[in-house]
Amino acid sequence: MTTASPAHTVHPRDRSPMTWRGSLGAMASRGEVDGPRVQEATAALAWWKHRTAMIETGIDPERAEELADLIAAGGDTEATDQAVAR
Questions:
Q1: Rounded CA separation 69/14 (Å)
Q2: 33-86 pLDDT tens trace
Q3: Between these two residues, 17 and 5, which has the higher pLDDT value?
Q4: How far is 65 from 23, CA to CA, in rounded Å?
Q5: Which of 64, 46, 44 is closest to 56 using CA atoms?
Q6: If we measure between CA atoms, which residue out of 77, 51, 48, 85 comes closest to residue 66?
Q7: What are the CA-CA distances from residue 67 to residues 23, 58, 59, 63, 76 (Å)?
Q8: E strands, 1-86, where?
Q9: What 8-state DSSP symbol labels residue 3?
Q10: Domain limits of the chain?
Q11: Which residues contact 71 (CB under 8 A, 6 or more apart)?
């Protein structure tokens, strides 16, 4: 069974963590345990986890989202330079 790639990548904040978890559960129930859609949902849940942890430590929510984006970028040099400049 092949899975279609998502038409476009959705930013993690566009959906709640509950809907990302629900999507993962639905895909798993159909036997879809890897592929681009599973990777997207897993990455989105990681983004939410990082954002939540930073907010719990007292970081401003907007800044936490910027930092979570930086973490998700995986050390992209341009993104790192922009975040450090702030």
A1: 13
A2: 999 999 999 999 999 999 999 999 999 999 999 999 999 888 655 655 555 555
A3: 17
A4: 22
A5: 64
A6: 51
A7: 25, 13, 10, 6, 12
A8: none
A9: -
A10: 39-86
A11: 47, 50
